[in-house]
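Example 3.2
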Amino acid sequence: MSTLPRKDSGRAQDNPFLSPALARRYERWYSEVGRRADTLEKALLARLLRSFPDTRSVLDVGCGTGHFTRWMAEKGLDAFGLDVSEPMLDEARRHGGPKYVIGDAATLPFADRCFDLTALITTLEFVSNPERALAEAARVARHGILLGVLNRYSMLALQRRLSGESLWRSARFFGPGELAVMVRRAAGMRFRAALWRTTLWPIPGMRDLRLPWGGFIGVAVHLKGELPV
């Protein structure tokens, strides 16, 4: 039985994200074959970000090469990236911009509610305990959590599983219903609302919809003390 790759594992045999070669090609994907996906994912995440109008600071957990951390900084947020992989963080720092720190999604090295928002974008798929990561994300956030997750009920997830790449074979995918249950449990008494939509539909021209079959799920988790718009 193969070992699952995990972004929160610090051992090279468990975590392909520790590979310098993967770190170098990871960022290139967004500007090459992943250009359309990047555009649609950011459009959906931007829509959800607007439901947190008072947000000024964000912690990007599992930031990798800092692709989305830089994007959030470009939107005027004080963005901070965290990842367990030094090679990925080295690549993030090479691109400049936000501040980065090494750390584990399951034990974030920050005080309670020290960021307005916590983001986990294509991170839950690769952590050993997603609910623990969500609980930590809620602990350090004042207003809420922004999630970007590949949808297990989509054609995209099937394509990833059939790709033959070990990274995708062992990734864990989720559906909107599962995410809703997890965020409620993880946030506990602080949970207020979860707004979600999906994008990356196989039909040209489709953007994002509140239907559960798009390849990429965006979720805005609002915590108590802050009303969704």
